[in-house]
Specification:
The complex is a heterotrimer of chains A (416), B (168) and C (815).
Chain A: H1 17-22, H2 27-35, H3 38-48, H4 60-65, E1 74-80, H5 89-96, H6 98-112, E2 114-121, H7 126-141, E3 157-162, H8 172-179, E4 203-207, H9 208-220, H10 222-226, E5 236-243, E6 249-254, H11 259-266, E7 276-284, E8 289-290, H12 303-308, E9 317-322, H13 327-341, H14 347-364, H15 370-383, H16 390-405, H17 407-413
Parallel strand pairs in A: 1-2, 1-4, 2-3, 5-9
Antiparallel strand pairs in A: 5-6, 7-8, 7-9
Helix pairs in contact in A: 2-6, 2-9, 3-6, 6-9, 13-14, 13-16, 14-15, 14-16, 15-16, 16-17
Chain B: H1 3-6, H2 8-16, H3 27-35, H4 43-53, H5 57-66, E1 78-83, H6 86-89, H7 93-104, E2 117-122, E3 134-138, E4 141-145, H8 150-167
Parallel strand pairs in B: 1-2
Antiparallel strand pairs in B: 1-3, 3-4
Helix pairs in contact in B: 3-4, 4-5
Chain C: E1 4-9, E2 12-17, H1 22-28, E3 52-58, E4 69-70, E5 73-74, E6 76-78, E7 83-84, E8 95-97, H2 101-116, H3 132-140, E9 159-161, E10 165-167, H4 177-186, E11 192-194, E12 201-203, H5 216-221, E13 227-229, E14 242-247, E15 256-264, E16 270-278, H6 291-295, E17 310-313, E18 316-319, H7 322-336, E19 340-344, H8 350-362, E20 366-369, H9 376-382, E21 397-402, H10 406-409, H11 411-422, E22 426-431, E23 443-446, H12 452-458, H13 464-470, E24 474-479, H14 486-502, E25 512-515, H15 522-528, H16 536-540, E26 544-548, H17 552-555, H18 557-564, E27 568-573, H19 578-581, E28 585-588, E29 597-600, E30 605-609, H20 622-632, H21 642-652, H22 679-682, E31 694-695, E32 723-729, H23 746-749, E33 753-756, H24 758-764, E34 771-776, E35 779-787, E36 795-799, E37 810-814
Parallel strand pairs in C: 1-8, 19-20, 19-26, 21-22, 21-24, 22-23, 24-25, 26-27, 27-28, 32-36, 33-35
Antiparallel strand pairs in C: 1-2, 3-6, 3-7, 3-8, 4-5, 9-10, 10-13, 11-12, 14-15, 15-16, 17-18, 17-28, 29-30, 30-31, 32-37, 34-35, 34-37
Helix pairs in contact in C: 2-3, 7-20, 8-20, 8-21, 9-14, 9-15, 12-14
The chains are: A alpha/beta (416), B alpha+beta (168), C alpha/beta (815).
Chain lengths: 416, 168, 815
Amino acid sequence: MAHVLLRHRDIPDIHKLEIYKKNGGFEAFKNAVTKMKPNEVTDVVKNSGLRGRGGAGFPTGMKWSFIDNKNWPHYVVANADESEPGTFKDREIMEGNPFQFLEGVAIASYAVGANAAYVYLRGEFWQIAAFLDEKIAEMEEAGYLGKNLFGTDYSLKIYTHLGAGAYICGEETALLESLEGKRGQPRVRPPFPPSYGLYGKPTIVNNVETLTNVPMILANGAEWYKSMGTADSPGVKIFSLSGRVRKPGNYELPFGTTFRELIYTHGGGVQDSRKVKAIMPAGASSSLILVNDDKILDTPMDYASVRTIGSDLGSASVIVVDDTVSMDWLINKTVHFFRHESCGKCTTCREGTYWMSHLTERIHEGRATRADVDLLLNVAKQMQGKCLCALGEFSTMAVVTGIERFRSDFEKVVKA
Amino acid sequence: MSLAEKYPKEVKQILAKYPPEHKRSAVMPLLYLAQREEGYITKAAMQDIARMLDITETDVASIVGFYTLYHDKKEGKYRMQVCTDLPCALRGAEEFLNNLCGNLGIKVGETTADGLITLEAVTCLAACDKAPMFQTQGPDGIKYHEHMTVDKTLELIEALKKSTAEAK
Amino acid sequence: MAKQITLTIDGKQVTVPEGTVVADAAKMAGIDIPVFCHHPKLEPVGMCRMCLVEIGRPVRDRVTGQFVMENGAPKIQFMPKLETACTNKVEEGMVVLTRSQKAIEGQRGTIEFLLTSHPLDCPICDKGGECPLQNLTMAYGPGKSRFLYDEKIHLDKMVPLGELIWLDRERCIQCARCIRFQNEIAGDAVLGFDERGRSTQIVTFSDPPFDSVFSGNTTDICPVGALTTEDFRFGARPWELQAQASICTQCPVGCNTTLNTRREAKAGGRIVVKRVMPRQNEEVNEIWLCDKGRFAYHYTEGKNRLSRPMIRKDGKLTRASWEAATKLAAENFQKAKKNFVILASGRLANEDLFNLKSLAEHADGKAYLYTHMGGGELTSLVGVGQGTDFGKMGAGTTIVVVASDLYQEAPVWYLRVKQAAARGANLIVMNARETKLDRFASFVVRYAYGDEVKAVNDLGKKNKIGESFLKSENAVILYGSDGLGIAGSTALASACAKLLHENGFSGKPNNGLIGVWSRANDQGAWEMGFQVEEDLAKALKGKTVYIAGADPVGDDPKLAKALEGAEFVAVQDVMATATTEIADVLLPAQAFTEREGTLTSGVRRVQRFYAAVPVSGDAKADFAITSQIARHMGIILEGTSVSAVFDILAASVKSFEGLTYARLAEVRPQWPLVGREDLYYGGTTYENKQGMGAQLSAAAGRGETVSIPRVEKEALPRPKEKELLAVPVTRLYDRGTTILPSELLHQRIGEPNLVLHPSVAENLGVVEGQKVSVSFDGVSGEAVVKLSDAISVGVALIPRSMGLAIREPVAVKVK
């Protein structure tokens, strides 16, 4: 099947404007601006069932319809902060198929009445930002961005903005703070960005992959999009496969594809032919899926199904953990990641990740007792539901499920 | 010399990206500009940026402190930032880093005697399928180096050494 | 009035204004929800997670929007997670549980998390005893920590954030109250967080560090012992302190304060003031105090305090009895007849000034106010009406600030004017140079020195700024003496008064003229009928002079010379000065900390202060000394009790009509609640139990016919070749007698300086920091050059009370 998002894999040089145009590029945007009302565009996206690809899976069209039309100007911000350990899909889109992504930004902007859009890239994507700047310039040159587009009174500018090394800026309100030139610390919500976003103005923040779907949905219709994937999770998804597999990488597949197909058919199976011990379907933020029964691998990867096995699909960053890995090592890794990335704004996360890191270190280094493992579990649970944003909550996921589902790994490393 | 005098074109371009009443947004790109030559941000540069954006020096400093890609101390010309996060670690990143340390004779966080390389371990760089990998942060921005081995890394360092010597 | 919302908190029905957050609503209902980051004066941030509560909201029918009923009551749906009471606004029908099992566990968890990094060094911590963290730990904490003590983080414990405030990094709980106070309230964003996560720490990068005149307030609202003052650090334990109400005597704002006192071994067992704290008066200073008010009280305890009456014998001052000293003064005053002159300053209380003025009247002498600024008779005529409150000014009100740098002259007014502007008031800032208030102004008018009157007159014209002024519902003008002497400020006051009065902006609440005086009770002196004299030297020469609370000899060589030729000089003061050295009779007065009395603030609010420490030596209150002298002259002036003097005063001074001493001690309920039980909420600011004062009426408000004299302004001096026009400006920290004795302020006071525009400096061939000699009009001295591009070219600024006696604009020679 032809790719919907990773089209550069099918069409060489689609990153060149002429090639992109030749393959239907910008038709959807032009059609929207010249023939559709903004709310009609939103309706198509709503009907397609497209859900946000950043992790939360919130219906995209519904988010757009929340934009506050009593307060102007409006902004669109593309979240290209891609920082979840195990996620590397947005990068490939922007490097390989940049115009489709930028067209998605443009269509979203038109739909919500924004005349300025920002692409917020993580600081490490320095080269990609420079590349996108070139592509934006080409679009301006060709009349796809700028004033009075296609002879209408609609105008749009797209700008890139580089972060500077902070995972938390993937959280949309932290991203907005950062874009405003402040420390990237999440805001209290509500109000949500569609009513109070960039510079306090109504703002739609969408993930790169989400936006890249949009031109194809407009070009081919909502029904076409819904024909892929599942009823709960329509369409296609890029699964970033990493960890102990033979062929890690991005795989664009319909929602509902099984873990088995991803790992064995596409990923070439586990390295050294070991057994899958655990799966982290949402990167470091995952609840660990215990693969003690081979049937688990047949779970379809869609939002609802993954929930039935005690986890969440999130950003679909599938990290495969084999039976050579001990969970005390793994959670020590994830907790240190979150401790490093905690913004420090709320007590629970700042102190909780710090405390957990002391405990995971002690456990991993064999200096702990069984009581310390229980304490760690208790501290993690004490954090749950009390953090200002999702980062703190996510930091507890692997800890709680690691201990609860892989207790024997911990029994082996504690002192008697 | 102020940033605006040194890089008039770049400063103008950066400021043009944001609404004039929200020029504070320009603080991050301006900090990259200030860091370009020396690899770190001086107090004078922070003052300069604060004045340009009508914010306080403390505001600017607190941004520098928050984000890991800004530095307020002079270290190696290039920062070699190896990802050792979970997905990379599952694919040998930690051994790679250990071996590299052994070869360079420095520990993580240290700088080579010639001042060329500061070796750092960092969190996920969104290249989990291409581990071991690292990025270099230097005068010419940030570059990714993927599917790396110790040998390839040493070659890269040689090349950087050479280009630095030539530049002198 | 805002819409009222009714909700239920812990079973109690509460009705509060729409927009109130749950934590505040609970407080209003007498229910305490523990908080650290939340402060009722600051924007909510939801950071500390201490105020976690269960919140339920009534379920609404999707179609009708009506509440869904269940068993006769609205069906309530609780959120699965705890929510922060500080960020959630009240909603109709909301149900809040602050003490459910779930809420208790959440709160306990937050305390445990906070304490993991906290050093638990309460026994050596200044905050111990008045520490929200300590108190809330006892009330809501787990009692025992499961965090290994050995794994505690160790951080710097003595980090100077400037010379006034210390930071203990271990104790900090990252609530950001200090940062937010500096950003939101003070407008000096000089504190920030560095790093992130557990490494997050408070820093300042300003030059000088913590460059704000409001820094002390951060120690009041810091909920732990992280921020302490250089003044009080390791000084005493809070529970040893006595508290007495007072009024700050440093500027015309009249901030309400509390003096904390203790018997001190280091002071030989005397009871001394250990610290000055703000006392809540939402109509005056809210819960804030500037650093001058907080730290400059040390002069009252200084080595230079006078404690015994003296008489000059054979050229030397020698000890004398009160009887002898007052008698000698009386004899000379009587002998002088029309040559009797009283020179008193606004450092004195209303009662002191009243007795002095009465004495002058009975003895046929003159009573002059020692000041550099005129126009006070107009603030009595068209001053602000009763009920004036900067806190109530917002949209519809115009605030004009002309020829005054409020940040330097009256910091708390600066705060409140800034906040009024944020609420929508039309702020017009008019000055010849840039001031800090400019950035909050709707309009900034930049005139040339000498054009002040013209600039004010232009406000009455039909231009954009004039219209914004004329069409407002209310208007106040704060006028000052930036760049002006007595003549200039008098002319300016007259122009302002005319403009206000002719447009109906006088005598009503939030309308009228306000003088930004240099001393706390200058307005009081004007009310008593004191006059100013432009050529004071001439007026003093050869006269019999009674000087009270002023140091003309130390301030001005011209006046020193004039007094050399005086017939007789009686000096009444709290401390020894250059003027007391030339006295023929010396009358030691009590400091404001040792006695009671009243002061009249710049917005004409009369407020009481109380005795906090025992009297130093034989010193007496000023009004009593005057009374004793008067008695020797056969004039009866009340001298035994302040309240009696006040009652006589109120009966004879029209603007005081109807006031009683007791009425000044009345208090009204205030929001937010602050004080000892509520210190976790509002900070260590004191609750006001001793009086909020009362405002005077203005002639315009009493319906009297007001006629405003037209005062012609003299032209500015024209500098000759190689001369510069220099103008006086007021700085917060100067070398004045009530500031200099506080050594911890010396770094901020700095050296006498001459502020020049860089281009002028270049022409003169001088550079920043260079010492130059400055001479004008019989005055010469040294000053350090300071450059500023915020002032106009061709004009030099000379700060007052910094060693160069500048009274008015002058032509100066700089070498």
